[in-house]
Amino acid sequence: MTRPTRVLLVDDSATIRVTLRRALEATGRVEVVGVAEDGIHALQMLHALHPDVVTLDVEMPRLGGLETLQRLMVERPTPVVMLSSHTTEGADTTIQALELGAVDFIEKPSFADLRAGAAGLIVEKLRAASRARLAPARGIRPRGTTAPALGGWAERVVVIGASTGGPQAVREVLTNLPVDFGLPVVVVQHMPPTFTRSLADRLNALGPLHVHEAEAGMPMQPGHVLLAPGGFHMAFDPRRSVVLTEAPPEHGVRPAVNVTMESIALLPDANPIGVILTGMGRDGVRGCALLRAAGGTIITEAQSSCVVYGMPRAVADAGLSDEVVPLDEVAHSIVRHARIAGGRSGHG
Fold this sequence. Notes:
The protein is α/β, with parallel strands linked by helices and 348 residues long. Helix content is 36%, strand content 19%. It is built from 11 helices and 14 strands.
């Protein structure tokens, strides 16, 4: 039998600490080895208890969540899952935490959520995070500093899918594309509402491309990135304009990478470049198969750089990857294929 995942639970709310601890331990898959009410206490317990994963509240007295995370990553690197509020401010702080090295986040559950079965979903995230490869916090590249690629661009569409560890990975890819990148980019990151808006705003401020949380009717444009909004599947009509739907989740998620890739595979002359980055599960396998059948090229992130080698592994194991490269080479690979005219490349 697999041993329970050892969790240090950090939250300034006594109600959350008690309620969440009971709900998690009732699953039999988690052992809460300690609880802390602030960051100072959490760091002391971290060194003494050596947990597999830490849940960390964003707003706490004495030492807040971001400051605690920064110290934790230096003093004793441990997988961290942030406990985030539904507010815009909470989402903004959570995106910063993911950039600083947090593996994932969960929206702070209510008692009703836990009674409705949310504990099981939280446990899945905690167990996945406990096995995650900790990605180093990467420096921020200011807008406009990425050198131009020089040369013409092919008529292609880039579509990127990611889940756990994705915000940092997507940022790494987009900020390393050249300032003159001339293709439309579509991104599907598994995330709930509010958080995708915060992620889009953050990416827009950092990278050379213009990043938008997609709205119905928005067109694809060269040098612009459309990020699927949380809670909606994103597809494209024949005019390459955004269509948002609340169709049932696929692989338990909405937005799903598969849905977006399927619609792009149907576009005439899309010559797509599909990119699958770090994340849990199998979302993207069906979509990549459709893109490849439509003449597309598939790039998957290598295990060596993935926080969670789930989605890229599933695509590679299905024989759909044209290239498997570490994260710091993904942007270069996209640029190389973006400047190859005539559709699919790299197929033997």
